Amino acid sequence: MSETEARQLAREALEEVHQELNQQLRERNHLSPQAAGPALSQAGREQGTQSGSTSELNLPALEQLVRQKQELESHLEAIKSDYDRIHAPVAVMADELAGELKNYLRETTRPKYARPLRDSGAKLDMRAAMASQATYERTGTYDPEVWINRTHPNKRGQKFLFLLDESGSMGGEKWQAALKALVMGMEALESLDIDFGVMGFSDRPVIHKQIQENFDLSNRKTILSSIQGSPKNGTNDADALEMGMENLLLASEPEDELFIIVITDGIGKSEQVKRLQQRAREQQIHILGVGVGEGMQPVADVYEDHALVPDLAQLPYELSEIIRQKIERDED
Fold it and tell me: In whole angstroms, how far apart are CA 107 and each of 89, 259, 285, 324?
């Protein structure tokens, strides 16, 4: 049995226990299903205060159900992965971010090739050319339909790259907030089927996920395990940004919209990073700085486009709003 299946079975069993507890409570106090849940905490105090209530309630059965519920909850918590523990508090926020982005990030449709109306084109269809050659050898005539042209996609794609600051200045609450912001962003883009990569940086840049890699359960754990042990050492954000720009361009199509989201406290090689942002604009790459919590003013000082939020719950709207503005500016 897989870990995902085990979690699902545990949740289903826990739900059954809750239903049985509520049924016991309704039979005892004649409550509606809506009232049973909130009243559960009052069951112990009310027990014995109503005439005949003890005989109506199977106390050993109730105690057993409570014990089963506690055991199931403990088991469910024990089988959670480290990724689950980070994801759980931001799952709703990830959905919110995906909902905001879906309004203006169109689904990826890759350009295709089609046969032109004339006997010429931009690309030779090798299969058709080989068939034409065979026809010529048999009949002495060529089939001219060996060319194909690239069609223009009716939707534009996007590629994202997350850069996570793993330097020593990102300790404590900064680090926990940064990890949750990263997971929130990854889950939102995955739900929209948008390609993304993940890199980290301290003394040097490190690739945690290639842009074309799948984002399955195993890969989620691999990404997090490769990040764990941070934050430490210095801040080589400039090299990471330059490497990220190169990787993003290599993994993209000419019509893709490209975004790099840097989750950081802004402390690093600020002048180099500013110069790289100028180069990124020339290459039509959008770079966004993200700072969560207190002491994030350096992010605004270094990154022209940035989202600074005191609380993680505000990030879905703030980040999506900056992305919307960048896209609309490109379309004007």
Answer: 27, 15, 19, 15
Domains (ranges, CATH) in the chain? 3-79 (no CATH), 94-104+156-331 (3.40.50.410), 113-150 (no CATH)
Each as own residue / partner, the long-range contacts of residues 75-78 (CB below 8 Å, 24 or more positions apart, any chain) are: 75/10, 76/7, 76/10, 76/11, 76/14
* Gap between the Cα atoms of 27 and 25, Å rounded: 5
pTM for this model (two decimals): 0.67
**Farthest CA pair distance, the chain:** 105
Listed in sequence order, the residues at least 6 apart from 15 whose beta carbon sits closer than 8 Å to its beta carbon are none
Higher pLDDT, 173 or 48: 173
Length in residues, the chain? 332
DSSP string for residues in 253-313: -TT-EEEEEEES-S-S-HHHHHHHHHHHHHTTEEEEEEEESSS-HHHHHH-SSEEEESSGG
Q: Which DSSP string corresponds to 215-243?
A: --HHHHHHHHHHHBTBS-S---HHHHHHH
Mean pLDDT of the chain: 79
